[in-house]
Specification:
The chain is built from 15 helices and 18 strands. By secondary structure, it is an alpha/beta fold. The strands form four sheets. Strands 13-12-9-8-7-18-15-14 form an eight-stranded parallel β-sheet. Strands 2-1-17-16 form a four-stranded mixed β-sheet, with helices on one face. Strands 3-6-5-4 form a four-stranded antiparallel β-sheet. The radius of gyration is 23 Å and the shape is globular. The N terminus is likely disordered. Keywords: Signal. This is Agarase.
Length: 477
Amino acid sequence: MLKKYLLLPLLFFAVNSNAQSSDEYKLTVSAKISNQGTGQKPGFREWKDYQTRTIATLKNYQPSEDENLDAYGATKARQVKATGFFYVTRVDGRWWSVDPDGYLFIVKGVNDINIGKSDNNQTSFKKLYRNPSNWSFKTTQMLRGFGFNAAGAWSDYEELTDIGNKLKPLTYTVMLDFMGSYGRTKGAYQQSGHLGYPDNAIFVFDPEFEKYCDQYAKKIAEYRLDKNLYGYFSDNELPFYRKSLDNYLSKKDEGDPGLIAAKTWMNEHHYDKAAITDNMRNEFLGFVVDRYLSLVSKAIKKYDPNHMYIGCRFNGYEKTVKEVMTAAGKYLDVISINYYDHWTPDNNDMRNWTAWSGKPFIITEWYVKGEDSKMGNYSGAGWVVKTQQERGLFYQNYTLGLLESGNCVGWHWFKYQDNDPSNKNVDPSNTDANKGILNNLYEIYQPLADKMTELNQQTYHLIDFFDARKKQNAAGK
């Protein structure tokens, strides 16, 4: 039983488990990635082999399905302080989410759980579900059957939570748009995957932005007593670039608040514009992020002090910068990361995010696409593998790394359903790509779902295994 593993000394897993995890990457999966951003004709780079581990390759691990879970999907084997809402805490050196009843919880979510809008989607929807209420119930039932417990960003959480008393709704997140909605009034424009901003510089120094945040946040007061809400995202993938300092300083309007703020910052630090270094750029980027997060977090906590603020989904250069993560730790409960650029999560990254911020992280976008879907698969980020089975191997390889880290409180897979190439009214990053657990006819990619289920249904057992091995390895040094 899982309770026994958690509450008693973890000797069960320690026996003969001193092998390093690097010995477990026994499988090889071939993958390719698009050449977006290279300036070349659209296409893909060469196939490359990636070393991969799965549950089956873990040394001395005995698979066992998690038992004794509560309605949220948390393990009832250990209970800490219950606050009536989700929060995070550190227990015996590992970071956890804690559910409203005080039980330890790992988020296993899916993004963009919605009724598809294309003609293909709608035709199949009517045959299979008939109405939104039936879809919500069956979709929740399906995802819980796969071991998922959460609805990630851009999901129709209002529909998904309205399923009566027969089934516990998925825990959900709310995707807000503080800078995005403000920026659109100032010239922000749609790019692939996120908004673009004039001069690649957000309007965080505008004197009106603080007041705007307060007005914008008023609407979240309606969620303040909802126990099923995990937390809020404030924006998605803001342009926190390496040369943000240069971008602000290059603004042409001498009265621009961003230019004034950058010049003031340079003067206060006695820096020379003609001799800008990357250290200076990182300092300034931390200053920009601090300004943004301070204003947004103040507004969120004013109107909903009960729920977590889980960030703006860092996705680029900023996630490698200590000054950014230090600023994030001052205001965020959990650091959200959209993490596409590693086949296996990098141990240094995962250590640094928490060491620099003092907070755990959650991976809020990641996926791999399958060539056997017969889709173009050029749009979006991430790799293309040959089969749905290999998509499942990637899922296990990736999540095992997250669980082993001890600093990750969960993940959101991107996404529920494939992009429909016939639907042209979408973000450029979401056209003709196999990102879903379901295809456009609501048919399940079963080999992928099977591998997801296998891992999701023994998450807490795997955590016990990794923690016991870590303790034994530490004792053996």
